[in-house]
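Quick one: structure for this chain?
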Amino acid sequence: MTDLAPFALRVSFLTLVCVACLAACTKEPPRALGTLEYDRITLPAPAAERVVAVTVREGEQIEAGRPLLKLDPTHTESELAAAQALAQQQREALIELRIGPRSEDIAKARADLAASQAQARDARAYYERLLPLAKGNNVAASDLDHAHAAAGNADGQVAAARAVLDALLHGTRPEQIAQGEAALAAAVAQAEAQKVLLSKLNVVAPRAGRVDSIPYKLGDQAPVGSPLAVLLAGDAPYARIYVQEPMRANVHVGDVMRVHVDGRDASYLGKVRMIRSEPEFTPYYALIGEDAARLSYIAEVALGPDAANLPAGLPVHADYVGPGK
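Got it. Here's what it folds into:
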């Protein structure tokens, strides 16, 4: 019996060593690391105008449609008035084209034609009176040539007056009306664009959320396109995570994930609302052991109302729970 005791001790020691080695060699199940995020909405400056009113504070919870700030509308109102005046001018010009020439203009053209015809008859008669005199050398050749040219010029004046009358009688060409319609449409569109720009000077919240930043203060003049306000939209944050390659085959949109937030003892259940089909390189904070060389897939996990008070930017890790119902 005494000879078996050391042998039993050795077996027990070897068993413990094997168990320890197996425990050390066992890999932890893969985790998806990430951060808490909100949908960020940036409202750019529509025009380089001065900020004349700011009605919210940074960090304030607001509802959709809430006025945030206002830009000086003076210049844009002037541009809108000019555009509307131009549109009215083009509208009246198109009406004139569609109506055609006035009866008074036609009557004047007829009178001009009659006067031209009378002058032409007089010039032709004078020339014909000089012809017999020219045979007897009783009139200078230059006078005869001048009378002939005057008669021809009078005939040309008659043709021009008749063409003017014909143009008035035929009315406005369809191409001119089409050009007038196009000019009116362009002027109206320009006026509408100015009207839309004027409405954008009153910056309102497109969605409910929290005011994250108001970069420009009262009296500042922001360049066009600069962010006037940044909102964090949504009733609760979502977890933006990087799903490691071993997990990717099991994770689908609608699946349930358990999200653990650094600094919080409680965990939060959420559903996968999006997962990319194209892989991303693993972020630096997800480089864990052999996973450093693996690719990850960006996914978003929507959290419930119990996570509404969590701030954005906190580190999280998510565990796969199972398919969603």
